[in-house]
Design a protein that fits this description.
This protein is an alpha/beta fold. It has twelve helices and 19 strands. The strands form six sheets. Strands 1, 2, 3, 4, 6 and 7 form a six-stranded mixed beta sheet that branches. A five-stranded parallel beta sheet has the order 16-13-17-18-19, with helices on both faces. A two-stranded antiparallel sheet has the order 5-8. Strand 14 and strand 15 form a beta hairpin. The longest helix is centred in the N-terminal third of the chain and has 23 residues. It is elongated and about 125 Å long.
Length: 439
């Protein structure tokens, strides 16, 4: 069985970009399709027409016009093939992520030579000698909405006057999600909360005649009293309720442009979007990978995750009543899918020195007293850290990942958060997500 060709955009040295030697005006008019023989034929025809006009020879005029018409007809016929070949492209791998293998199938039922057109970072695509199918694999190095196609058909005429590539078939948009890393070590914070009582839980009350009863304890509701059992025992007895925990968790991701594209040390990236590219940085892409990886671990353990930015705006539209592991995973899948075109917020407004979170997010944090809160931040001043530390009296369990270009410059902010009892990670943005989690 023939090996499926694989193209990896992360291996930039595996191919050489070749620029067309044809002038831009020729490429724009598709005149670069003429071969050397074609240009010679066209030039000979023009020369004969000029000589016929100069010497008044009708036979030279007829021969020159014939050569010009022959070259032009061959060129027009070749261009007419553009778009007529039915090329179909199908994505065999659903929901691809950065670094994962994505399989694509190219199909053409007509006799033609088809060269697939990949995004620029991949280099030249595979060639299909149709009719038939061609499967190939892609490994994307960046997230975003990547476009495959249009495919290019190798066209030529029988006289060898024209030969080249013309676009044919439709394009296919491939949404590529942020990289997902399997974090083997799960935070002890989450493990403890999974075995305890969650803030939101659904309970199944035992039947009135059920023997699942216990002694009354201070604080039990009067509605739980099992009156018949109390009469038999001569003391107050209550029905034992079975709780099925559906733990909550909040993940806050900093999406402020200035916090991730702060200085010249941040490697700027251009993420392909649906209509236009949008800016990002290597540090934010690492943070997004970390957020997705942590979110996956929490969701797989049954946590109902909420995703917010610093303004308190939900990053996804979530299920309002999440009461099962299936919906917990579905909430995370929605967030992970949204990372394909998640852009930084560049509204030009700067937060004050002491305000990092909006009032809306502050109020929401007050409801997460015993649930885990994960914060992934790009920049944090000492004043903002001092204000954030005041939440430790209400939010007991929080884990902060501060991803910066120069960690040594943030010692003051780190000291403000050190006494909160939270887990605080001051990390270099050059580290990988897996190293950050274990730091």
């Amino acid at each position: 069985m023939e090996k499926i060709p694989r193209f990896d955009s992360r291996n930039a040295l595996s191919w050489i970009r070749s620029q067309s030697s044809s002038p831009a005006v020729l490429r724009r008019l598709r005149l670069e399709l003429f071969t050397v023989r074609g240009w010679c034929t066209l030039g000979a025809g023009i020369l004969l027409v000029f000589l016929a006009h100069l010497f008044g020879r009708h036979e030279l005029m007829a021969l020159g016009i014939s050569l010009i018409v022959l070259a032009v007809v061959s060129w027009l016929f070749t261009l007419s093939l553009r778009g007529r070949t039915r090329v179909q492209r199908r994505l065999l791998s659903t929901n691809p992520s950065v670094g994962e293998v994505c399989k694509v199938q190219l199909h053409c039922s007509e006799q033609a030579m088809i060269q697939e057109q990949l995004p620029e970072s991949f280099g030249p695509g595979p060639v299909l000698d149709s009719p038939g199918d061609l499967e190939y694999e892609l490994i994307f190095g960046t997230r975003g909405i990547h476009q495959l196609g249009p495919a290019q058909q190798v066209v030529s005429d029988s006289l060898g006057l024209v030969k080249g590539l013309v676009n044919t078939g439709e394009t296919l948009d491939v949404p590529v999600r942020s990289e997902l890393i399997d974090l083997h070590r799960f935070a002890s914070l989450g493990e403890q909360l999974l075995t305890g009582d969650a803030r939101h839980s659904r309970s199944t009350t035992a039947d009135y005649y059920d023997v699942a009863i216990r002694d009354y304890q201070q604080g039990d509701s009067i509605r739980q009293v099992h009156w018949k059992a109390s009469a038999r025992q001569g003391k107050l007895m209550v029905r034992q309720e079975n709780h099925v925990a559906t733990a909550q968790a909040l993940l806050i991701l900093d999406t402020t442009f200035e916090h991730w594209c702060h200085s010249g040390v941040d490697l700027r990236l251009s993420i392909p979007g649906k209509n236009e590219d949008f800016p990002s940085s290597r540090r934010f892409e690492t943070a997004l990978c970390l957020a997705s990886s942590i979110g996956s671990r929490y969701a797989s353990s049954g946590y109902q995750l909420s995703f917010r930015d610093l303004s308190g705006t939900p990053l996804i539209e979530q299920h309002q009543q999440a009461t099962s592991d299936v919906i917990a995973q579905s909430n995370f899948d929605l967030f992970h899918a949204a990372t394909a075109d998640l852009s930084l917020n560049n509204d030009g407004t700067d937060a004050t020195d002491t305000e990092l979170f909006s009032d809306q997010l502050h109020k929401e944090l007050l409801g997460f007293r015993d649930e885990p809160v994960i914060m992934i931040l790009g920049e944090l001043t000492a004043g903002q850290a001092r204000r954030l530390a005041t939440l430790a009296r209400t939010v007991r369990h929080a884990e902060i990942f501060l991803l910066v270009a120069h960690p040594e410059r943030y010692d003051a902010a780190h000291q403000e958060l050190a006494g909160t009892g939270w887990k605080v990670h001051l990390l270099s943005g050059s580290l990988g997500a897996e190293q950050m989690w274990g730091a």
